[in-house]
Amino acid sequence: MQTDAPRRRTQRERKEATVARLVDAAIAALAETGYAGTSLGEICARSGVSRGGLFRHFDSRLALLLAAAEEVARRHLAVVGERIAADPPADARAALALMRERHRAAENVVWFELMVAARTDPALHAGLAPIAERFHADIAAAARSIPALAALPDAVLTLLVTAARNHFDGEAISRTLTPDPVAEDAALAFLADYAAHVLTRLPERC
What we know:
This protein has nine helices and no strands. The longest helix is centred in the N-terminal third of the chain and has 27 residues, at 11-37. It is elongated. α1 (11-37) packs across α4 and α6 (109-118) crosses α7. It has 206 residues and is mainly α. It is 75% helix and 0% strand. It has helices spanning 11-37, 40-47, 51-57, 61-86, 92-103, 109-118, 122-144, 154-174, 181-201. It has a domain at 63-201: Orthogonal Bundle (Tetracycline Repressor, domain 2). Residues 16-76 form the HTH tetR-type domain. Keywords: DNA-binding, Transcription, Transcription regulation. Residues 39-58 bind DNA. GO terms for molecular function: DNA-binding transcription factor activity; transcription cis-regulatory region binding. It comes from Actinocorallia herbida.
């Protein structure tokens, strides 16, 4: 019996696969070896792509690291969207617990590495800032899609999301040295109580 030969990938498919390998390698390197350890040599070794192949798709290390940041943001939001669609958080505390869980995800450390490095690297700062701005806006939009938070006024929701995001980012870093589950849960409850307090004071909607 004759079988069909495997379909050859198109040039576009080969390009997309190579780019994905490079971005995956950059993400893994940032998470495991840090910003300083994420050299082009490290990325090439992890991806199996030569330097020449890398530069056919990215004109610099910076461009590749920014692509890695965008991909981490995309994955973060995709997981959140899937979780909300499958099992919407029943209240503010559950919504904040989901947010905290995602900020503790292994890939999220990529953001910490890049944000700290951007403090003293003007080119990285200039490239990362608009990506972070879009990411933060998308996080707020995801929060707006949670029924338990939908009634919060925009200003209040933005304040809650910003406070929670900043807190959970700092907590994710500090707990690697001094974990304190009791204090961490108390802080989450404090944020949830704030949201619940605002919700109870909203005027009845017709």
